[in-house]
Design brief:
2 domains; alpha/beta; 414 residues; disordered N terminus; Rossmann fold
């Protein structure tokens, strides 16, 4: 009887072990969807299985081949995120490797070759790495560029997403005009979204922007640019950051941010080896000639914005120190002409918010133009590898990029 029961127990244990072993040996699979594309084709290696699923961990090479007369804008993959389909695109390459670890869409976007003519691109210039993510920028230099003024673009994305590539439509258009070197910069995302153990704050993001500007100014001659003539623009979160960089370079210093009573200073993430924060402050205050912040946030008194940014309990002085509205210089001390845009159908940024900033600029004697773009929503200056975003850019962005350029022309001629 004892032997019989022992056999039952051993058989049961063996069956359980087989089941457990089988469970662990089963490999998860994920669906990879290839988006339709125009003016070119996309291939996958290894080839997409008949059921559209790859085993977890598979590395798939996505290769794009354009038709004659077209070029690869970007190869990408996308996943669902906070703003819908979140694109992770790599411009200026014909193939990328994608690791299968969740359901993803992959594809490529093609554009007319003429959109890439007339300039060269210096990609992924790393200016600092204060955390996990290297901070970088791209430079678009017109053919034959020599001592041209520089437009620096700062991307949006709620301070928590995107990178410099999302502004490439604007950058290409401005560079093709032949009058400006154009740089598009990245910065850390707020919180721990970059993988940093210590959450990043608005202080860090603004310091990153100042650091990127300092690096571009230091190397301006290499790109055919003039470090003494800097113009800034940015949209949404980048609208805030560009306005902050334009109005607040006088706050650059090494005195700390709120560590001493009444002292709120920004130490750029990058400083040239032979220059102090004081020297960079002086040079940047002189170099920045104007700014075009698009549908941006200029103050942080709105409860929903403060909640989103974790600023509910922040001291009032710290809130003011990150707000362009509270730091506009008198035009007699330092002119900072502003070109403001907002879509009339923008659900995030109200006319009241932008008008309040415009009125504050006027009170300080600053030149300002505020253009409302009829029918446009939010983020019409963005560029993503899908038809709807590009159509929006072509409908609204193209015209107002040209208008912005005319504004900058007039600023430099004053």
């Amino acid at each position: 009887m004892k032997i019989f029961y022992e056999k039952i127990i051993l058989t049961t244990l063996f069956s359980a072990l087989v089941m457990i072993s089988g469970a662990f040996s089963q490999t998860s699979t994920y669906t990879i969807t290839v988006d339709e594309s125009s003016h070119g084709s996309v291939s996958l290696n290894p080839a997409l299985p008949a059921d559209g699923k790859y085993a977890e961990g598979t590395v798939v090479t996505v290769t794009a081949t354009p038709q004659s007369g077209y070029a690869v804008d970007a190869v990408y993959y996308s996943t669902q995120g906070q703003w819908g389909a979140m694109f992770y695109d790599t411009p200026r390459v014909s193939s990328i490797e994608v690791t299968v670890n969740e359901d993803k869409n992959v594809g490529a976007y093609f554009i007319e070759q003429s959109l890439l003519d007339g300039f060269t691109v210096t990609s992924d210039v790393v200016f600092a790495q204060p955390g996990v993510k290297p901070l970088k920028y791209d430079v678009y230099s017109p053919d034959g560029a020599d001592n041209l003024p520089i437009i620096i673009i700062i991307h949006g994305g709620g301070w928590t997403s995107n990178d410099e590539d999302i502004m490439r439509g604007m950058a290409r258009q401005l560079a093709q005009g032949g009058k400006y070197v154009v740089a598009s910069i990245d910065y850390r995302w707020r919180g721990q979204l970059d993988g940093d153990e210590q959450p990043n704050t608005m202080l860090n993001l603004i310091e990153d922007v100042f650091g990127g500007i300092a690096h571009i100014m230091e190397h301006a001659g290499e790109y055919g640019g003039d470090a003494s003539r800097i113009l800034l623009t940015g949209d949404s979160a980048g609208g805030h950051l560009s306005a902050a960089a334009a109005t607040m370079p006088h706050m650059i210093g090494d005195g700390g941010f709120g560590e001493s009573d009444g002292v709120y200073e920004y130490l750029p993430t990058y400083l040239p080896e032979n220059k102090s924060a004081d020297q960079v402050r002086s040079e940047m205050m002189s170099a920045i000639k104007g700014v075009a912040p698009s549908y941006g946030v200029f103050e942080f008194n709105m409860p929903n914005v403060r909640q989103m940014l974790g600023l509910v309990d922040a001291p009032a002085a710290a809130i003011e120190a990150i707000s362009p509205l509270s730091n506009i210089p008198n035009a007699s001390d330092r002119p900072v002409p502003h070109y403001l845009t907002r879509g009339t159908q923008d659900p995030l940024i109200s006319d009241e918010n932008v008008t309040k900033y415009m009125d504050a600029l006027i009170q300080k004697g600053q030149r300002v133009e505020y253009v409302q773009v009829g029918g446009a929503g939010h983020a019409f200056f963005d560029w993503k590898p899908n038809d709807s975003t590009v159509e929006t850019y072509n409908k609204y962005g193209v015209y107002y990029v040209d208008d912005m350029e005319l504004f900058f022309d007039s600023v430099l001629s004053e």
